[in-house]
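Hello support,

Our group uses your service weekly, and this is the first time we've seen a run hang past the timeout. The protein is Sphingosine-1-phosphate lyase. I'm not sure whether the cause is the sequence or the server load. Input pasted verbatim:
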Amino acid sequence: MDGIFIFGTPATSVIAIGSNDFHIYRLSEALSNKGWSLNPLQFPCGIHICVTHVHTEPGVADQFLEDVNTELEIIMEDRNVPVKGKLAMYGMSQSIPDRSVVGEITKSFLDSMYYTE
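Update from on-call engineer: The timeout came from a worker crash unrelated to the input. Re-ran successfully.
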């Protein structure tokens, strides 16, 4: 598929995807909005899917590929749109030179999301 590549040669049911053309977290966000669960990766940026028994059910793989193609067409129309939301924070955290503060930032962020009186 134009715009994405698979990292390495998957030997198991986990497939990691990257892009040299746009920020790959945009594809993750778009597919998440369609109900797919992909996980972000860092160093380098990527996303991965773990293929499970559910994915082998009739039509599921075809639907996933169709959704990827549809979202890729939209993303490739404007490759420079920034990543938003929680994936933007996740992506930004890899640019912090002092890696020791990432845990503290993450803890503060999660505390703020789950704050109750």
